[in-house]
Amino acid sequence: MRTEISKLHDRLQTTMIYVTHDQIEAMTMGDRICVMKDGMMMQIDKPLEIYNKPANKFVASFIGSPPMNFMDVQVSAARAACVWMRENLCWSFCHRWKKRSRPMWGKSWTLGVRPEDIYDKVYAGNIATEGRAAVSTVEVVERWAAKFCSILILEKTPWSPASSPRAKPKSIKRSKFSSLREIRLFDKETQERIL
pTM value? Predict the structure, then answer.
């Protein structure tokens, strides 16, 4: 049905408004998407802009499957690099965030990372991961057709990294993983994206 509606839109060459609760329909069919919550517009933009630059935590969690991973962290500077800390976890990121994160030092924020931006060190291969690897326990591994989705526990918080079919993660094991540059920071009070 998505295909037929898209073909109809191409043939008529007119503006169409399509209302759906299905994010896949919205992402595949829309030229522009309006994400709403409780009757309020959260964000209006092109599909990839909404995916890559969500306006707030709600949009970030609604768009994407598996959804974005979140964790409350504190930002500080150590060894000329940004560090995101939570209890026993200390996760450093690249220099490019240093200047932009300076006003955030010493404060608590919500860190957001997409599943596809988390890499198990064992399977990362030539992918240039950044920051110190965090150690976690993989509890469940789900096969999602062309990829695997693991459920791991990091500082008592469930996270879902996604990996390619070439990677064969195993459940009930210790795993070291790190992220690429694609991270987001959200204000804990307003839930607006700030980085």
Answer: 0.83
For residue 175, what are the β-bridge partners? 136
**Helix or strand run (H / E) with residue 100:** helix 98-101
Residue 101 · residue 82 · CB < 8 Å: yes
Residue 56's φ and ψ, nearest 5 degrees, are -155, 180
CA-CA distances (angstroms) from residue 192 to 25, 38, 110, 123, 137? 25, 17, 10, 33, 30
Reduce the DSSP state of residue 174 to 3 states and report it. Answer: strand
Cis peptide before 66 (omega within 30 of 0): yes
Q: What is the topology classification, in CATH, of domain 69-113+182-186?
A: OB fold (Dihydrolipoamide Acetyltransferase, E2P) (2.40.50)
- Can you give the pLDDT of all 195 residues of the chain as single tens digits? 999 999 999 999 999 999 999 999 999 999 999 999 999 999 999 999 999 999 999 999 999 988 999 988 887 766 545 556 665 566 666 556 666 777 777 788 898 988 888 766 665 555 555 555 666 777 777 777 667 777 777 767 777 877 665 566 665 556 666 655 577 889 999 999 988
CATH superfamily of 115-179: Nucleic acid-binding proteins (2.40.50.140)
- Rounded CA-CA distance 55/190 in Å is 11
Question: For the CA atoms of the chain, what is the radius of gyration?
Answer: 19
